[in-house]
Amino acid sequence: MRYLSFEWEGRPRIGVLDGAAVRPIEGTNALVPESEGALREQRLGPPIERAGLRLLPASPRASRIFCVGLNYDEHILETGREKPEYPVLFPKFASNLVGPEDDILLPAESAQIDYEGELAVVIGRAGRRISEESALQHVFGFAVANDVTVRDYQYKTHQWLQGKAWDRSTPLSAEIVSPESLDLATSGIRTLLNGQTVQSSTLDHLIFTVPRLIALLSVFTRLECGDVILTGTPGGVGYRRDPQLFIQPGDEVVVEVDGVGRLANRARSETP
Q1: Residue by residue, what is the 3-state secondary structure of the chain?
Q2: Which of 1, 75, 207, 244 is the 20 to 30 A CA-CA neighbour of 199?
Q3: Is it the case that residue 77 has pLDDT exceeding 90?
């Protein structure tokens, strides 16, 4: 099943895709903790034509966005770091997100803005200390993300927050695919910059799998409906290339995840 995050009559909505239309899920405006019951019941409203709708990030009001670093072997190799025994974690915020039709804002303070194609996990059922075996029962669906990173700010300290949490910098797809619709063992993931493939891998190369990440995160915090997990990026990031390759104004950055979808965004300079 495919869902869509969109704006309708000035409010965020979540609905089930039905051909060229979307049927809103009654009882909720967006993926927030209070939406859990409505998502389980899935009472659908009348269809709305998809054409012309403003598309929103999959979870535009996410309370928490958990990001995972160094989760593909090829990315670890290019960074020269050691393979982690526990996932590298850092946060983003709802203000960082943009939808599939929005521009990536390139801050004037940096000339080192990098792409990072990723699979995103959207939580639909709350839980604490979730087992790996039951983890996928807590997943509402999967989406496509681009963890855009401001490298020169990221490396100002050994913490990464200041390079990862720029406002309106992180694209997240509007479409969400239910867990039973995706084969995590075989799906490919790739990033294209102006039509050139710059990252390519498969989801079975994740060091910490989706169930493992959910289990580890839920040890220290209760996961809530609407929370998002960005699962890490493959090798090929621009900062580690020779010569380095960064996003420029006017560039198109595309992230594709087989079975989930395609996320394409243009970049433009932010007005300070």
Answers
A1: CEEEEEEECCEEEEEEEECCEEEEECCCCCCCHHHHHHHHHCCECCCEECCCCEECCCCCCCCCEEEEECCEHHHHHHHCCCCCCCCEEEEECHHHEECCCCCEEECCCCCCEECCEEEEEEECCCECCCCCCCHHHHEEEEEEEECCEEHHHHCCCCCCHHHHCCCCCEEECCEEECHHHCCCCCCEEEEEECCEEEEEEEHHHECCCHHHHHHHHHHHCCECCCCEEECCCCCCCHHHCCCCCCCCCCCEEEEEECCCEEEEEEEEECCC
A2: 1
A3: no
